[in-house]
Amino acid sequence: MIPVAIIGAGMAGLACARHLAQAGHAPVIFDKGRGIGGRLATRRADGLQFDHGAQYVNAHTPGFAALLAELAYSGATAPWQDETGRTHTVGTPGMASLAKAMATGLTIHQNAQVTAITQSGEGWRLRIGDIDHLAARVVVTVPAPQVAPLLGQDHPLAAALSAVRLAPCLTLMAAIRAPAPFITHNQPDDDLAWIAQDSSKPGRPTGDATLWVAQASPAFSQHHLEKGPVEITALMLPLLCERLGANPNAVTHAAAHRWRYARVTAPLGQPFLATPDATLYLGGDWCLGPRVEAAWTSGTAIASDTLAHVA
User: How many angstroms from the chain centroid is the CA of residue 103?
Assistant: First the structure.
């Protein structure tokens, strides 16, 4: 039997597993993707790379600041200044490096999508493909809208998430052989709410084109959410070229990614939810707010509560 099974290898799941492992326990993470980190993501294609999810992280609490200092010492992160001169922390050579560093020594099963979680007299059964895995405790760190399909619509914890809201984000990745007019451009009400010169971040590969990441506003993203990547690219690329003053003929690479649950707009308001017997937990950034640190705080709080019940 798995002592603690964690669903999702994003920041919340990694933080929870890391805290448990440091206390001498052996958690097991299951993630449906080929990579880990959730929106701590780096896309690589044609010798290029883009941070197409979280652009950077910042610390507002001593605990998270200590983690970032540890990761910086190991070389997994570095400072980066945006257009305003503010300094942020980014993964090196990509944002995915931050997650990979946190995952060192952890047991993680990738391409392992959990489709149902049910409680039995022996514990909790996790259905992956046509196989059930038995766990004494389960920590679910998927986006809030994905909880009910796992637990069932009538589960008390699933019902408690009805007020949580997350907004989508459409992201464009482009390589353009043209002068770079800025490092970052932040206009929340614009169709392209955030534009970053991704190749300006430390440790990135150099080339003959400037690499850009553009993230659409929630309104634009919601309106075009169901379009495919090719259509999204065709919509966003002319807007990016216009903002940069670049000729579309200077574009050497362009692709789009759709984040259906990207930004928390109405959080739960507490670090996690748990069943009365403390064997099932729900957590993630959607508990506390739209920051990577919120996910870390949630996952760490779950691990602390778990340790209090198994000690």
Answer: 14
**Closest to 76 measured CA to CA, from 101, 55, 56:** 101
**Does residue 311 register a pLDDT over 70?**
no
Instruction: Name the β-bridge partners of 256.
Output: 172
Question: Alpha-carbon distance 171 to 193, whole Å?
Answer: 10
Type of residue found at 227? K
Lowest mean pLDDT among 86-90, 203-207, 215-219, 273-277: 203-207
109: β partners: 30
**CA torsion angle for 179, 181, 187, 190 (degrees, to 10)?**
-40
Is there a contact between 268 and 250 (Cβ–Cβ < 8 Å)? Answer: no
**Confidence (pLDDT) at 159:** 86
Domain boundaries, the chain: 2-37+103-164+267-310, 165-265
pLDDT exceeding 90 applies to what percent of the chain?
A: 93
Q: Are 160 and 176 contacting, i.e. CB atoms less than 8 angstroms apart?
A: no
Pairing of strands 107-109, 28-30: parallel
pTM to 2 decimals?
A: 0.95
Cis ω before 93 (30° cut-off from 0): yes
Q: Which two tokens stand for residue 277?
A: 């017997």
Question: For all residues of the chain together, what is the average pLDDT?
Answer: 96
Give the separation between CA 158 and CA 256, rounded to whole angstroms. Answer: 32
110-136: pLDDT as tens digits: 999 999 999 988 899 999 999 999 999
CATH architecture for segment(s) 165-265: Alpha-Beta Complex (3.90)
CATH assignment, 2-37+103-164+267-310 = 3.50.50.60
Between 62-74 and 292-310, two packed helices, what is the crossing angle to 10 degrees? 100
DSSP tag of 227: S
Q: What is the pLDDT of residues 227-249, one digit of tens each?
A: 999 999 999 999 999 999 999 99
Q: Which residues is 186 bridged to in the sheet?
A: 194
66 phi and psi angles, rounded to 5 deg = -65, -40
